[in-house]
């Protein structure tokens, strides 16, 4: 096979254009480095009217926007979901890990929920509290300056609340709670659960001339054509490509391996061009991996050489290990007091919740039967009805003794009376990183490009199961306190109290974790491989532990910190 080699030597080759890769592209190119950005998916710009789904009516889609080609509905802006054609992954034993991949410029940030939470001081040192997992080799104080810069650079709304482990930041004004959220607040307060304004990376106020301000269409998952929400494509990559002249963008290009020399240092990457299916090589002084936690592990494990026979960065068998996702469970409630709502007033909002509940308890003091915590996300309201709103709206009659079924006037009456009367809650919690939860290379399966695929091995423990039980118990208390009737069956012990599959919350982290000791970690505290000092990881692979927070704000803060370190080390000619 002939491999086409480029003669350019880049200062940095960045793999993946999502949250981490996008940040590295911005910081490194703005510092004057010559950068190659390699992305497995096609070019994508949220502003492009050809691909845009924002502001489309339900009836413009063949099935009213329901899922035909995309798992979260055909208007959801993700190319790829749990399955990507021609790119399988496999499971060991009875594992059922779900792996979401978005193959496009900007990766998953084109449709993510924009919940942008800092980790707190305890989150970086949780082993000190309960003896479980490991502490990070860095503390909140190391990351704080980067969170501060990130808030100002990208924009996030919220409120300063002086909560120790949910640190304050530089917030834009938060939108007001809507009626269903006022009901949630009432219910939560009655049972002693805190509620504060959400923290979402959506511009409620002008930040700069390149981006517009949110006009409350509630459709952030479709990606914003005004660039008012954060997507790595619109906020980092496209401005860096157009503005710095320092970025060569390679799309539809699937990295197979990091190439190395006789000293074991990286020399660049080898990738398949998906259009002509040929293999190419690029040369770089540094390689920055931001392909997402599991894809980065896959690239490293596939990068075997004489110097790295077990895969790059894997001399101590840690790549792929300590994989962990957030826990998740949810419940919905029918609230009769929210029936027959007036529909002649504007209840538009951002594409996400306006309030949420950060973790409000203390596992030790409150004598809980699980460690760590979770936050509660709330949904409901009068969004644009799309496919089968309420999933058979007429069935809600069972809660008020009405007749189920019917067409014409009966259906119209049901839609009007039940519109906006359902409120849901979802818990997102911290699991403990375990060495035995991992992804590895499946020796028998390759993808359509001939690249060996990942095989997952993952089990929840009672820590996570007990946490899920606490979630649904709490939701039921809040639901009752706001006058709601629980919908659907409550999951019992046999169904792990409704605990969702690992991977399903799409916060997978830990596969190339950072640490001071190379024996039990893959990178040092600057996300630099212990085994090859010119290779860096800027995705969630480096997380030593999750928190009861969503992970992306921390991915970006750490990617910024690592990018600064790369600039410094190149200047000093240390790498
Ligand atoms: C529906 C949904 C809602 C979410 N909501 C939130 C939220 O509210 N808050 C939050 O914090 N997080 C949320 N997340 C998670 C968040 O999207 C991810 O944590 C974040 O995008 C991860 O960033 P990343 O850069 O590591 O990976 P990604 O964003 O996945 O980007 C990785 C990129 O690398 C490319 N790539 C992969 N392999 C290769 C290869 N071999 N060669 C070249 N390119 C490659 C991919 O195509 C992709 O573009 C959500 C995710 C989903 C799907
Ligand atoms: S809700 Fe606001 S930020 Fe989100 S897509 Fe609509 S206008 Fe853009």
Task: Describe the 3D structure.
The chain has 575 residues and is α/β, with parallel strands linked by helices. The protein is built from ten helices and 16 strands. The protein has helices at 19-30, 121-124, 127-130, 140-154, 179-190, 232-244, 293-302, 408-418, 462-481, 552-571; strands spanning 3-15, 35-38, 90-91, 196-197, 247-250, 253-260, 266-273, 279-289, 327-334, 355-357, 374-380, 422-429, 438-446, 452-457, 485-487, 535-537. The strands form three sheets. Strands 1, 2, 5, 6, 7, 8 and 16 form a seven-stranded mixed beta sheet that branches. The protein has a six-stranded antiparallel beta sheet with strand order 4-10-11-12-9-15, with helices on one face. Strand 13 (438-446) and strand 14 form a beta hairpin. The longest helix has 20 residues, at 462-481. The protein is globular. The two termini are 32 Å apart. Flavin-adenine dinucleotide binds at residues 15-21, 38-41, 100, 102-103, 107-109, 111-115, 254-255, 290-292, 295, 299, 506-507, 539-540, 550-552, 555.
